[in-house]
C-alpha cells in the first residue's frame, strides 16, 4: 500500500472528547471516526488491526474444537421473556418494535438464541458435547458511552456457547476455553492475567476474566506474589489481619461524641485505631424492598458485589437521608447495639464477629458506644465475607503469599452457566437410558474491538501507538527521506516490493513531505518497524528502526527482508 493512496487523516491535536490514550490515539492516527456517542466507524487502519485480532480469535477457537456460525442481531422478545431477562436487563437493552407492534431487541448477547437453536435440533446425548461460536456486532445502550472502543454502544465480540450432558464435561470444556483464551492473548502480544470473577447478570456457578494489564484499566486485580491466585476486586478474598484486641469484654458505655460522625474522626477522637470501630451502612433492595443494616470493620470497605451475592439480591441501593429518617436512624451515628431493628435485617462481615470491645454508633445524634461485643450485645441475621480484599494481606490459597494489586482491562470472560438457560428454555436430551435430562451450558466471550483498544492502552508512548507485531495494521513503513532523490526513491521502491512479495504488510510513504513529518506519522500510527532510505542509499544501505525499543541499525538492502523477518520473531 502506498501512503499517498492510504485513507489516513492524522491529527496533531487531541479531540476534546477523548480521555484515555487508546481513544486519543485511535482518533489522532485515523483508526476510527465518531458517528454518534459510543458509535464509531473503523477506518482502514483500525479495521486491519480489528481483523487481525479477529483472525487470531477464529484460529484458536477452531483449534479448540468450536464451530463458527452467525446468529441474527435482531432477536424477538419472546425468548428473552422465557429466561426472565427481558425485564432483568433493564435500560441497557436496545429495544424496538416492528411495523406489527411486536417487540424485538438488538442483541447484547446470544444465550437465548443459541439455546433456542439447540433445543430444537439436539435431542440425544450422542450429539453432545457441542460448542459453537460467532464473531458479531453487539449492542448495549450504555448510560455513559465513553473511552472510545472501551465502552461503546456498538462493539465487536466473539461469543461461544457449549452444551453438555454432565457437569464434568462442562468443567473440561471450561479448561479448554481458558487455554484457548491464553493462547489468543499471547498471540496478540499482550501482557494479561486470568482472574477469578463474579458471574454478574449472565449467571452461572463459576467464571474467569482475562484482563489486559494497563495502568489505565478500570478494574483492580488482586493477585498473589507467590502462587497463581488472582481475582478481580469484586471477587477477591484475603486472610484478614486481626489486630491484637483485648482479651476480656468490658461493659458497653455510651459516650457523647458531638460532631464526630466519620470513622476516621471517631477513631482520632477516642485515640483508637479504625480497626477497633464498626461502621453501619443501610441498604435496601428495590425489588424485594428488604432493608439491611450492614456492619463492616472500620478499616475495611464493603464490597457490594459480594454483598448482593450473599443476600441473593440484585438491586441494592444505599438508603437516602430521608429514608434513614423514616427508620428513625441518624446518619453517622448508627450501630447494632441498643436498637429496635423491626424489619431491618442485620448483616455482619465475618471480621466483625472476631472483634473485642469495639466502638459503634449510639443510634442517637452525637453519641457512640464503646466496648460493644458481638455475641454478647448483638447477633447478626446473616454473616459472611462482604469486604474488599486488601493489598498486603495474606493469600487465601497458599501459605505465606502476600496480595498485590494491578490495573486491568477486561477483554475476555468465560462462564460456567450450568442450567440457568437450558432449564428456563427447556433444552433437554435423552441419555443412554432414554431418560430426559437438562443440558448444562458454558459461555465464553472476548471483546474483539475492546482488545484492540486495550492493546493500545498497554502499548503507547508520547509519540503514539506501539503496536504488537501480530496485530499491527501494517508492519513496516518504508520511507524515502527525499522524494526528489532518485537513489533514495529507487532503493525504497525495491525494498517495498521485496517486503510485499515476502508477505509482510508494508506501506511505502511516497508523499512529498519532509522526513520529520513522515517519521512523526509513522510513530503515531505505530508501525513496528521503519525502513528509511536516506543518505546511505547510494551505498545500497538503509536504516532500520524498531518502534518499541528505539533501536536503529544500518542494513544492506539485500538483507532487509531477512532482518525484518528476524525482528518479527524477536520483538513482541
Can you give keywords for this protein?
572 residues, 3 domains, BirA Bifunctional Protein, domain 2, alpha+beta, 14 helices, YbaK protein, single chain, ProRS_core_prok, Rossmann fold, EC 6.1.1.15, proline-tRNA ligase activity, five-stranded mixed sheet, nine-stranded mixed sheet, Pro-tRNA-Synthase_IIa_type1
Topology record:
Elements: H1 21-28, E1 32-36, E2 39-42, H2 44-63, E3 67-68, E4 74-76, H3 77-83, H4 85-88, E5 94-97, E6 103-106, H5 111-121, E7 130-139, E8 154-164, H6 167-187, E9 192-196, E10 206-213, E11 219-224, E12 230-232, E13 253-256, H7 263-270, E14 278-285, E15 291-297, H8 304-311, E16 316-318, H9 321-326, E17 344-349, E18 358-361, E19 367-372, E20 382-384, E21 403-418, H10 420-425, E22 428-430, E23 436-438, E24 440-447, H11 448-458, E25 460-461, E26 464-465, E27 476-480, H12 486-501, E28 506-508, H13 515-525, E29 529-533, E30 541-546, E31 552-556, H14 560-570
Parallel strand pairs: 3-7, 15-17, 17-20, 27-28, 27-29
Antiparallel strand pairs: 1-2, 4-6, 5-6, 7-8, 8-24, 9-10, 10-21, 11-12, 11-21, 13-19, 14-15, 14-16, 18-19, 21-24, 22-23, 25-26, 29-30, 30-31
Helix pairs in contact: 1-11, 2-6, 2-11
Amino acid at each position: 500500500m502506498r501512503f499517498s493512496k492510504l485513507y489516513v487523516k492524522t491529527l496533531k491535536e487531541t479531540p476534546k472528547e477523548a480521555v484515555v490514550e487508546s481513544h486519543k490515539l485511535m482518533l489522532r492516527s485515523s483508526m476510527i471516526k465518531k458517528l454518534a456517542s459510543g458509535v464509531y466507524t473503523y477506518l482502514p487502519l483500525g479495521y486491519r488491526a480489528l481483523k487481525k485480532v479477529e483472525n487470531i480469535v477464529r484460529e484458536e477457537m477452531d483449534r479448540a474444537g468450536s464451530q463458527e456460525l452467525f446468529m441474527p442481531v435482531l432477536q424477538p422478545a419472546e425468548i428473552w421473556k422465557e429466561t426472565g431477562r427481558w425485564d432483568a436487563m433493564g435500560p441497557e437493552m436496545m429495544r424496538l418494535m416492528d411495523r406489527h407492534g411486536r417487540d424485538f431487541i438488538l442483541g447484547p448477547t446470544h444465550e437465548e438464541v443459541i439455546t433456542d437453536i439447540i433445543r430444537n435440533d439436539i435431542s440425544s446425548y450422542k450429539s453432545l458435547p457441542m460448542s459453537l461460536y460467532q464473531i458479531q456486532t453487539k449492542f448495549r445502550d450504555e448510560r455513559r458511552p465513553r473511552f472510545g472502543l472501551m465502552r461503546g454502544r456498538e462493539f465487536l465480540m466473539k461469543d461461544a456457547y457449549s452444551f453438555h450432558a454432565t457437569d464434568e464435561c462442562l468443567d473440561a470444556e471450561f479448561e479448554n476455553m481458558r487455554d484457548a483464551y491464553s493462547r489468543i492473548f499471547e498471540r496478540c502480544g499482550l501482557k494479561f492475567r486470568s482472574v477469578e470473577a463474579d458471574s454478574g447478570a449472565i449467571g452461572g456457578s463459576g467464571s474467569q476474566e482475562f484482563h489486559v494489564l494497563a495502568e489505565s484499566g478500570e478494574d483492580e486485580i488482586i493477585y498473589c506474589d507467590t502462587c497463581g491466585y488472582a481475582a478481580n476486586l469484586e471477587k477477591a478474598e484475603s486472610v484478614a489481619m486481626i489486630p491484637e484486641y483485648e482479651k476480656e469484654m468490658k461493659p458497653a458505655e455510651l459516650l457523647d461524641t458531638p460532631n464526630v460522625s466519620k470513622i476516621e474522626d471517631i477513631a482520632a477522637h477516642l485515640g483508637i485505631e479504625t480497626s477497633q470501630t464498626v461502621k453501619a451502612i443501610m441498604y435496601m433492595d428495590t425489588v424485594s424492598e428488604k432493608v439491611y443494616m450492614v456492619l463492616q470493620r472500620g478499616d475495611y470497605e464493603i464490597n457490594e458485589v459480594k454483598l448482593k451475592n450473599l443476600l441473593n439480591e440484585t438491586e441494592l441501593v444505599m438508603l437516602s437521608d430521608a429514608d434513614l429518617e423514616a427508620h428513625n436512624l441518624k446518619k453517622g451515628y448508627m450501630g447494632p447495639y441498643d436498637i429496635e431493628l423491626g424489619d431491618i435485617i442485620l448483616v455482619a462481615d465475618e471480621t466483625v464477629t472476631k472483634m473485642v470491645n469495639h466502638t459503634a454508633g449510639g443510634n442517637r445524634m452525637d453519641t457512640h458506644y464503646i466496648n460493644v461485643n458481638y455475641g454478647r450485645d448483638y447477633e447478626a441475621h446473616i454473616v459472611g465475607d462482604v469486604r474488599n480484599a486488601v493489598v498486603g494481606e495474606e493469600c487465601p490459597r497458599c501459605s505465606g503469599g502476600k496480595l498485590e494489586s494491578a490495573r486491568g482491562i477486561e477483554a475476555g470472560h468465560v462462564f460456567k452457566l450450568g442450567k440457568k438457560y437450558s432449564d428456563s428454555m427447556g433444552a433437554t436430551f435423552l441419555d443412554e437410558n432414554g431418560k430426559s435430562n437438562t443440558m448444562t451450558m458454558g459461555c465464553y466471550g472476548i471483546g474483539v474491538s475492546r482488545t484492540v483498544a486495550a492493546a493500545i492502552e498497554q502499548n503507547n508512548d508520547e509519540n503514539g501507538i506501539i503496536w504488537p507485531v501480530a496485530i499491527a495494521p501494517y508492519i513496516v513503513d518504508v520511507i524515502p527521506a527525499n522524494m526528489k532523490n532518485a537513489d533514495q526513491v529507487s532503493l525504497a521502491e525495491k525494498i517495498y516490493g521485496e517486503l510485499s512479495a515476502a508477505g509482510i504488510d508494508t506501506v511505502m510513504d511516497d508523499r512529498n513531505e519532509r522526513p520529520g513529518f513522515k517519521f512523526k506519522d509513522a510513530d503515531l500510527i505505530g508501525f513496528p518497524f521503519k525502513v528509511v532510505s536516506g543518505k546511505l542509499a547510494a551505498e545500497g544501505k538503509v536504516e532500520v528502526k524498531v518502534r518499541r525499543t528505539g533501536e536503529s541499525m544500518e542494513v544492506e538492502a539485500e538483507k532487509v527482508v531477512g532482518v525484518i523477518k528476524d525482528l518479527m520473531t524477536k520483538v513482541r
